[in-house]
Request: fold
Amino acid sequence: MLRELTLGQYYQTESRLHRLDPRVKLFGTIIFLISLFISQKPSCYVVATVFLICLIRLSNVPFGYMVRGMKAIVFIMMITVVFNLLFTPGETLVKLGVITITIQGLKNAIYTAIRLTYLILGSTLMTLTTTPNDLTDGLERGLGFLKIFKLPVHETATMMSIALRFIPILLEETDKIMKAQQARGADFESGGIIKRARAMVPLLVPLFVSAFRRANDLALAMEARCYNGGEGRTKMKPLVYKAWDKRAYVILIGYLVLVVLLGIFSPV
Amino acid sequence: MSIILDHINYVYSKGTSDEIKALDDVSMEIRTGDFLGLIGHTGSGKSTLVQHLDGLLKATSGHIYYNGEDIYDDDYDMKGLRGKVGLVFQYPEHQLFEEDVFKDVCFGPRNLGMSEKDIELAAYSALKAVKLPDELFYVSPFHLSGGQKRRVAIAGVLAMKPEVLVLDEPTAGLDPEGRDEILDMVKGLHDEDNITVVLVSHSMEDVANYADHIVVMEKGRVHMDGTPKEIFSQTEELERIGLAAPRVTYMMYELKRRGFDVDTTATTISEAVNSVIGAVWNA
Reply:
């Protein structure tokens, strides 16, 4: 079950999206997120849907693989949808005892569900098609201007990519620890909330111990290779924009303009 | 009384781009009282196979019978099975979590629902069985050496009083002395307490010295199944799949080639010594 978490993971394959400059993909993700939050009309969502489908097709990542990663957030999504559905004031649509569902509430609930789903799909798509290394480079270069304000951009980007890189390692470790404890009769699946929380102790203690050990090993390995942060570091493959990257920027801006215009002028 | 594996198949990550067939039509029998050595190259499916023995992994297809009962039956007592088939993983770090060694060993029997008195008795006798010095019973398991941790991990499983003890690479990362101590201890459990043992190993010497039944895995399939003598006489076949016979067997072949009348089926050092002494005596 743990193997199925795809959030924040990289999917190894060959595609146009994989080859794109990471800065373009970061910019694109932000554009896509902005477009979702300024969308107020169905027509905007139609455009966003078409855009997202095109990107998913371009990425060569199986759709089923992406959707499996969504399972983890279904619960959070349900809560938001229910809250929107029940607590939005407006014209009454259905009334069942104390529960009142309004037209605005229904609309909000649907929009929120779509927004959250697309938000996750959009950002997952970026991490699925970008290696942690590329992502760090992209972030570092893309946010390089923040260095003027003495923000540790390189260090933050490195920390982020290490964190992402460690997700699958720690998941695998969790899986092994779970099995080792299940072999001793541990039960992680049944019982009430307190019993389940207690059952996590034999899982979490070895996991923390191993995470600290790994962090320590990594720090040692980095120091052994004279890593000392961003100052004066050069790259073996510096990021250079290619023709396709520039075209991608144009397409992204075109998409955002289209959504904005539809938001203002579209009748539906 | 035995464990029977009947046409077991297992596929990792079914339906994705990294789908791997880890077990391919595996059938074998582990008889009560066996000391089974399971050998194979890295990635040959040994660890996947042993995780099926106590139901941690469920076969994609096929059946496993423990003492004649199908463990995939809906009403089968899986927790009970995990008590009877004790599986010790390669890294003790994956299971040690309590404040002290004794409490950690109590974890298994407590999960099986024994009474408090029985739990402590079981933990005490398990720690005695793995020959851990008494003064280490109440220290933190994280402060032990690699070999001691491994003993505590084995004790943690032994405390559940298993009928079958499955050890996945119990000697990886230990020095030769620690390795012999662990394996001698396991041999003692097998001989004196009549525990069936399944030993997963990379080391041909370990398997030759201790096992009385060997299964060779290759690419998820059972490649050979027999006694140590039967298996290790096929040196060329073993080498073809990236394994080898024990070094002492090679020495016997070399002696034979140089004209000494020695027994080339010797797989342990004591057998080799006897055969060489005999050959020298007769010459």
